[in-house]
Amino acid sequence: MKKMNNRIWWVLAACCLFFASCSGRKAAAPLTRTFPSVQVPRMGSDQDKVDYAVVHFWDAFMDTSKTFFCDTSIVNGVKKEELETAFGQFSSMLGNVMPKVSASAVDRMFKMAVILESRDTSSNVFEIMTRMADKYLYDPNSPVRNEEAYLSFARNMSECGFVDSTLKKSYDYSAKMCSLNRIGHKAVNFTFTELTGKKMTLYGIKADITLLFFSNPGCPACEGITKALIADRKVNDLIASGKLAVANVYIDQELEKWRKFAKNYPSTWLTGYDQNYIIRTDVLYNVRAIPSLYLLDKDKKVIMKDAPQENVLSYLDNLPD
Fold it and tell me: For residue 133, how many C-alpha atoms fall within 13 Å in the half-sphere facing its CB?
């Protein structure tokens, strides 16, 4: 718990360092500017302040009472590279709030971008913000990807009048994929076959926490995660105590290749394959890239979904002994 509090303080400090203070004057707006700050009022807890900063992150940047310059390198008066830094900061902050708060923050951002686009179609805000949301919140390689936040964005895009019909269908499909196995909901059950030939179900795993690890043999990123888990003392202690189960599941079809490689995984893991190939073909899970990590509680409710390795290890390392 102490480390989580430190993380909140880090986010607040990052906000203070990142943002420039607003003057509040009503003078004519300059053509260009630095990315404007969010002014966090004095209020309750540190988490309340983080929540407020996330939800109101874009208010000053997308203030519709002023007009700022736009071209290929300037977005609403802010240099594109500076705006991208801000979007990365925003995306990182979304991971420090509850899903309901992150959805509210994304909805607010989207609505303001639509207002700017409605007022002036030559504005590039909507286009750039859309591109950055795809890149930071949904790209499988993004370290701050966040399907719960992206779900709100994709739903908005699928209903937006500024988006053509083909893209609307694409965003509607993405929204449906993001709706699978949402955080706080029970993960879909499935059967897998262990290397020994024994069949197991996800729900049949008895542990306080289940780490569901979709991996492939010979995948460098999978190998990196495997080594990190093996080297983590806390992870090994949790497995030994029965509090943590690692279910390492192969969902593709090169079974002979998998069988040869699977012997390299720790014997303390539940290593198996999807014998019916339904995880991919029936889209039980939104596995857009391998590896993919899910954390589930004892009731198989999703704690983390397609989470970065660092977030998973941080969570496990902070569990009580």
Answer: 27
